[in-house]
Specification:
Layout: E1 2-11, E2 26-33, E3 36-40, H1 52-57, E4 59-60, E5 65-68, E6 78-82, E7 88-92, H2 96-107
Antiparallel strand pairs: 1-2, 1-7, 2-3, 3-4, 5-6, 6-7
The chain binds D-MYO-inositol-1,4,5-triphosphate.
Length: 109
């Protein structure tokens, strides 16, 4: 599965709150391949290679949990992703259907 997602980093490894200045929303082209969610920056091209920075932004979804961010009302169609090492991301999907589709795909790998 792939598509545009807007990401906010809420907590780093071990659930430590991500510091100010690193909590902003950023748009990525997300590619879910196996157990890795690749987050590609910049303009989307089907043949585009992942840059070194893209690889640093990749998220392991092994033993992770995605759920609708019902308590987050500032933006619509936002879901949480909590990873096995307790990072927490918020992802905004383009619409409700896409949000549900990402949640289901992430939780059923
Ligand atoms: C963050 C940015 C986020 C905001 C976050 C800020 O600043 O303005 O949009 O989250 O608030 O810290 P920066 O880009 O300097 O990291 P919201 O959009 O959810 O308000 P937060 O620290 O209360 O999460």
């Amino acid at each position: 599965k792939n598509g545009f997602l807007v990401r906010k980093v809420h907590a780093d490894c071990d659930g430590k709150r991500t510091p100010r200045g690193k909590r902003g929303w950023k748009t990525f082209y997300a590619i879910l391949k196996g157990l890795i969610l690749y987050l590609q920056k910049g303009e989307y091209r089907p043949d585009k290679q992942l840059s070194e920075e893209d690889l640093k932004n990749a998220v392991s979804i092994h033993h992770s949990l995605a759920m609708k961010a019902s308590d987050y009302s500032k933006r619509p169609n936002v879901f949480y992703l909590r990873t096995a090492d307790w990072r927490v991301y918020l992802f905004q999907a383009p619409n409700a259907e896409q949000m549900q589709s990402w949640i289901t795909r992430i939780n059923t790998v």
